[in-house]
Amino acid sequence: MKELRFNRHNSTHWAEYKRIYQAMFCDEVERRACEEARRLLQAQIYEEFDLQIGAARYERTPTRRDERNGKRLRKLEMRGGYVVELEIPRARKMDIRFGVLDKWQRVEPKVLTAIVKAYLLGRSSRCAQEIVEAFGHSRFSRTFFTRLVRQFEERLEEFHTRALSNWPYVFIDGMAVRVWDSYLPVADRP
Fold it and tell me: Cα dist. 46→39, 70, 146, 180 in Å?
């Protein structure tokens, strides 16, 4: 039987190996989750398309409402990353809409919500851009951020101006903030 010899710094090596293997495992899980999301989205898109045109692929029925006209590839950005190469089938005459995607949607709504939160917390579009990129999402233009913030502000204004008469209870919460004026001497401050 051969004797095992351990080096002095073996525990640091094992800690490094553990970190590397954990990172590899997490990357593999994310990759497989994106593949599975793509597979499920693709199946849903094909099923909805078949229902809307009235026939499955290569099927000839009298109830068919339109014919297939190829496909286009599309990317979708989700919280878990990119779902690449979704095949969106096209019809010759009908305008097909899908329940999974809006017509021009490229980003999942939850990602857009995260972008607005990053903007509100980051105080600038550049800071929000860095936060969004840190989570693995693509770069967005400043006009895109401006449009998102404008939509958020419109929804916020609707929320603030809604009628409260239909509610049986109203809870009011308040906060007071003391602001120090840096131009006043310390003795003159309240």
Answer: 11, 12, 35, 62
Q: How far is CA 9 from the centre of its chain?
A: 43
Report the residue count for the chain: 190
Place of tokens 């640091």: 12
What lies within 8 Å, CB to CB, of 48 at 6+ separation is 96, 98, 99, 100
**Is 168 part of a structural domain of the chain?**
no
Q: How far apart are CA 89 and CA 74, in angstroms?
A: 11
- pLDDT of 116 reads 77
- Burial class from Cβ neighbours inside 10 Å (0-12, 13-18, 19+) for residue 145 reads buried
Task: Note whether residue 52 is domain-resident.
Answer: yes
Lowest mean pLDDT among 23-37, 39-53, 111-125, 160-174: 111-125
- More confident: 19 or 8: 19
What global pTM score does this model have? 0.55
- In Å, what is the CA distance from 25 to each residue of 31, 72, 78, 100? 10, 33, 20, 29
The pairing of strands 68-78 and 81-91 is antiparallel
Residues in CB range of 86: below 8 A, 6 or more apart: 38, 41, 42, 45, 73, 74, 75, 76
Q: For the chain, what is the radius of gyration of the CA atoms?
A: 27
How many structural domains is the chain composed of?
A: 2
Two tokens, residue 22: 């954990």
Domain encompassing residue 149: 108-161
